[in-house]
């Protein structure tokens, strides 16, 4: 029975932006919905371990599927912790908790094309040191992590010469196109079969175990006892490697949705509902979210940026400082900036809007600054001679004269924002990026286009919109054409 | 009255005005003559408070310019700068009426005044509606002139206001300005290179060389009693005007 009082609770379930994480999170969500103890909110497709873990810590989500190896290495930063028990104990101090394993171990493995492997006579990682010239493509995370490429190379004594870092799903494509020889894979990856890959045997036992677990804060059991119980009964030890690979393949190779795959696992039924190729409702919703992100952040940047530009033009040192600070913000990669903002804003549209606002500032501040600086001093003097106050000078002379430059700054910001806003999906802020990220996780070109094409159209529309605004704002005599 | 007392001005290492004293009584039209770069514009700028002298005083109507606010200065001085200084984003008409509008003064009276001036300087209503970049050099000069006169300040500073005009228009304009200055007994400082303009409009003339006044007096004095060769040469360079007086 659903108790209306407890129903007021919400259970926020997160996932990272790859298929397996989506499927596991969806399974948990469907289970929790069936229990009915709380209304379930899905915050899926978060951008990487850093962002997802921060979201958990800040209670932006209540739980998400994670792997023991990732926890010890990337979260606890204690790679010595190998076994489940010591990881669990270590998490207790942080007020965090992991469930028992779901039943499969999705560890890293290196894989190659079957034919090429046979040609080179390779089968084990220990043989790799004789083939250092192989071209390899690894995910950014694998290249960075200590227990990734770096220690693996030390452990096996190889030194690969041509290492490329790229998005995981792109690496497969590159391998099948023959552009690279060696990729890192997860051992439950559906694409192993699709691309006819063979895993190199980890003969010196390098890779740690990556047992899938439910990662939550310690109070999960207390707050959601029924859901917790249901997870214990239906998930723990119930998903083995074969099942997980199958679920992954359902989604990635056979075109089922995450929700259908989850249903298949929970109910054993495989129903393929008619999914239209282009889900217009979803696209419309995401486009609206996207526009909200772009325009709110842009409006803030205009309100703050123009005064900053005016100050910069009037005060030499403060001006240089402001322009420098703005330029500095531009150099922070967007994902890193989003990550830095989570402690202050959590996840969702707020930090995304703020990050977009920061990125939009520089072109506007600079446009205002340049516009004001290029005004002939004689005109300012003439205005003062006519008795204009500083404010009147700004309002009636300087800003109108600078308006072409200010507007071009605003246009630049707007277009950049349309593009950058796609990254907002990594912190659960929605927008067209949500479709693109899911499409990337599935390596589904159609779906990527469903996000990318509206984003492109939006960019053109924004351009046209501001050309029209130009006609209204910029004095007719100052227009270039 | 404008009083300049022992004013000097340096731009970096160059001493542009060594020590200048000059008194222009109320109602006088005073001409500044001199070769290019001798400091004429600099003197006007100091009279308008746009340029602070390194030493010495500028006094407008018994008040030291240092103690006056920008608005006070602009209420007593109308200044038409050498390049006109028209706002490129405003039509000629809006340029002229800008000082009126920002003061919140009554527009109809000012507009009438503007049309009066405009017909006197042979500008059409159509031309007044255009933007500066749609006007010729001479038309722009006349628009700037009207703007400088629209507030009707007691002191008027004009930096070569007629240089780009053809002789016929210039002649008419000169007559009109002379009438206006006399009627309203304005104190005028006018920079020109043209001895015709100088002799027609000027009550007195200061001939300058390197920031110093070489000779000061009526036009006839300069022609008939040149103080030195510099004055003689300067006047002779424009013979027809000089001949007319001798
Ligand atoms: N802001 C400035 N910085 C440096 N030098 C200046 C500045 N303004 C004027 N000068 C110099 O001062 C001298 C006098 O300039 P000014 O503009 O007063 O000459 P002018 O008599 O008006 O000349 P013209 O008849 O060509 O307009 C010139 O040598 C000029 O180069
Ligand atoms: Mg000059």
Describe the model.
The complex is a heterodimer of chains A (481) and B (246). With 481 residues, chain A is an alpha/beta fold. Chain A is built from 22 helices and 10 strands. In chain A, strands 7-6-8-5-9 form a 5-stranded mixed sheet. In chain A, α2 packs across α12 (225-234). The longest helix of chain A is centred in the middle third of the chain and has 35 residues, at 280-314. Chain A is elongated. Chain A starts with a helix and ends in an 8-residue tail after the last helix. With 246 residues, chain B is an alpha/beta fold. In chain B, the strands form 2 sheets. Chain B has a 6-stranded mixed sheet, with helices on both faces. The longest helix of chain B is centred in the last third of the chain and has 17 residues, at 167-183. In chain B, 44% of the residues are buried. Chain A binds chain B through residues 378-379, 381-389, 392, 396-397, 400-401, 475-478, and chain B through 48, 50, 70-71, 73-75, 77, 79, 81, 83, 85-91, 98-99, 102-103, 131-133, 147, 151. The structure holds adenosine-5'-triphosphate and magnesium ion (MG). Adenosine-5'-triphosphate binds at residues 11, 16, 34, 36-42, 82 of chain B.
Distance between the amino and carboxyl termini of chain B: 32 Å
Task: Going across the biggest sheet of chain A, name each strand in turn.
Answer: 7-6-8-5-9
Fraction of helical residues of chain B = 40-55%
Provide the domain count of chain B. Answer: 1
CATH fold descriptor of the largest domain in chain A: MetI-like fold
Shape of chain B: globular
Structural class of chain B: alpha/beta
Helix content of chain A: 55-70%
CATH H-tier superfamily of the largest domain in chain A:
MetI-like
Largest beta-sheet details of chain B: 6 strands, mixed
The CATH architecture of chain B can be given as: 3-Layer(aba) Sandwich
- What general outline of chain A do the C-alpha atoms trace? elongated
């Amino acid at each position: 029975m659903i108790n209306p009082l407890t129903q007021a609770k919400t259970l926020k379930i997160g996932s990272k932006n790859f298929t397996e994480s989506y499927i596991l999170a969806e399974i948990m969500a469907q289970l929790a919905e069936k229990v009915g103890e709380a209304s379930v909110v899905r915050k899926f497709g978060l951008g990487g371990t850093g962002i997802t873990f921060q979201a958990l810590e800040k209670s932006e989500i209540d739980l998400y599927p994670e792997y023991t190896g990732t926890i010890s290495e990337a979260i606890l930063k204690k790679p010595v912790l190998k076994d489940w028990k010591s990881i669990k104990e270590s998490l207790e101090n942080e007020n965090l908790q992991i469930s028992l394993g779901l039943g499969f171990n999705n560890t890293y493995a290196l894989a190659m094309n079957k034919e090429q492997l046979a040609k080179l006579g390779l089968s084990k990682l220990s043989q790799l040191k004789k083939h250092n010239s192989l071209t390899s493509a690894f995910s950014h995370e694998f290249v960075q992590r200590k227990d990734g490429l770096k220690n693996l190379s030390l452990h096996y004594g190889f030194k690969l010469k041509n290492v490329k870092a790229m998005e995981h799903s792109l690496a497969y494509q590159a391998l099948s196109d023959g552009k690279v020889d060696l990729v890192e894979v997860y051992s439950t990856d559906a694409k192993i079969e699709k691309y006819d890959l063979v895993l190199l045997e980890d003969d010196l036992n390098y890779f740690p175990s990556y047992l899938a677990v439910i990662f939550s804060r310690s109070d999960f059991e207390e707050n959601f006892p029924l859901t917790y119980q249901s997870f214990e009964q239906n998930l723990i030890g119930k998903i083995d490697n074969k099942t997980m690979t199958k679920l992954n393949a359902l989604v990635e190779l056979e075109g089922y949705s995450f929700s259908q795959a989850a249903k298949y696992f929970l109910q054993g039924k495989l129903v393929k509902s008619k999914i239209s190729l282009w889900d217009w409702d979803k696209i419309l919703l995401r486009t609206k979210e996207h526009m909200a992100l772009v325009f709110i952040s842009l409006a803030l940047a205009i309100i703050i940026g123009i005064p900053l530009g005016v100050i910069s033009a009037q005060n030499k040192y403060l001006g240089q400082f402001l322009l420098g600070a703005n330029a500095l913000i531009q150099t922070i990669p967007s994902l890193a900036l989003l990550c830095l903002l989570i402690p202050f804003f959590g996840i969702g549209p707020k930090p995304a809007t703020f990050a977009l606002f920061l990125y939009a500032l520089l072109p506007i501040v600079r446009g205002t600054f340049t516009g004001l600086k290029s005004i002939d001093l004689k005109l300012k003097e003439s205005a003062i001679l006519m008795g204009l106050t500083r404010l009147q000078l700004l309002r009636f002379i300087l800003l109108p004269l600078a308006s072409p430059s200010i507007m071009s700054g605003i246009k630049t910001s707007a277009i950049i924002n349309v593009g950058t806003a796609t990254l907002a999906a990594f912190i659960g802020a929605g927008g067209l990026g949500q479709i693109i990220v899911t499409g990337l996780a599935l390596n589904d070109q159609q779906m990527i286009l469903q996000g990318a094409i509206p984003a492109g159209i939006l960019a053109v529309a924004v351009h046209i919109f501001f050309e029209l605004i130009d006609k209204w704002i910029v004095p007719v005599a100052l227009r270039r054409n | 009255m404008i009083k300049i007392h022992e004013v000097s001005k340096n731009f970096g290492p160059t001493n542009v005005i060594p020590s200048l004293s000059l008194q222009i009584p109320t109602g006088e039209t005073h001409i500044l003559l001199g070769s290019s770069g001798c400091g004429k514009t600099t003197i006007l700028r100091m009279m308008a408070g746009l340029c602070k002298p390194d030493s010495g005083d500028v006094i407008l109507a018994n008040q030291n310019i240092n103690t006056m606010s920008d608005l006070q200065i602009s209420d007593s001085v109308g200044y038409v700068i050498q390049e006109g200084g028209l706002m490129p984003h405003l039509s000629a008409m809006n340029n002229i009426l800008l000082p009126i509008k920002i003061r919140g003064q009554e527009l109809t009276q000012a507009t009438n005044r503007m049309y009066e001036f405009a017909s006197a300087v042979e500008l059409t209503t159509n031309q007044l509606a255009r933007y500066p970049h749609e006007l010729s050099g001479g038309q722009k000069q006349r628009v700037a002139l009207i703007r400088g006169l629209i507030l009707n300040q007691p002191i008027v500073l004009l930096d070569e206001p007629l240089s780009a005009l053809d002789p016929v228009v210039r002649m008419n304009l000169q007559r009109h300005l002379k009438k206006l200055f006399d009627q309203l007994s304005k104190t005028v400082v006018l920079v020109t290179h043209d001895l015709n303009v100088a002799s027609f409009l000027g009550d007195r003339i200061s001939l300058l060389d390197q920031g110093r006044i070489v000779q000061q007096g009526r036009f006839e004095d300069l022609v008939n009693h040149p103080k030195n060769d510099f004055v003689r040469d300067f006047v002779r360079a424009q013979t027809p005007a000089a001949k007319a007086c001798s």
